[in-house]
Fold:
Amino acid sequence: MFDVLPPDLARLLTLRVWHAMWLQRIDTKIADLQKRDAEQKQGQKGRPQEPDWIVELGIGNGRPPIEVHVGGCYAAGKRRRPVPRDEARRLLASGVRACTHCKPDTHLRILD
Structure:
C-alpha cells in the first residue's frame, strides 16, 4: 500500500544517490552549526567580564573624566575605562556628569 518506490533498479539507484547527496548536505550543515556554536561559546568564555562602572574620558591634556556610566551602557563612548564603585561615587560627587541613559547616580544611590 505504501510502496510508492519505482519498480526498476535504475530509478531506485538514482533515488539512493539523490538521498545520499542530501544526507551529506544535511550532515555538513549540522557540523557547520555545531562548530559555530562551539566557537561562540569559546568566545564568550574568553571575553573579559563587563565592568560594573565606566568613566568616559574627554579629549585633550590628561583626558579628564566627562561622564560616568553603568558597565555595558550603550551610550558610553569609545574613550573609557573601568572604575571601581568608590571611584564612580567620588567622580559623581565631584561634579562629573551622570549618563542620562543608564543613570549611574540612581544605581549608586547618590541624591542631588
Summary: The chain has a mean pLDDT of 91. Helices lie at 9-46, 85-93, 104-107. The chain has two domains: 7-47, 53-107.
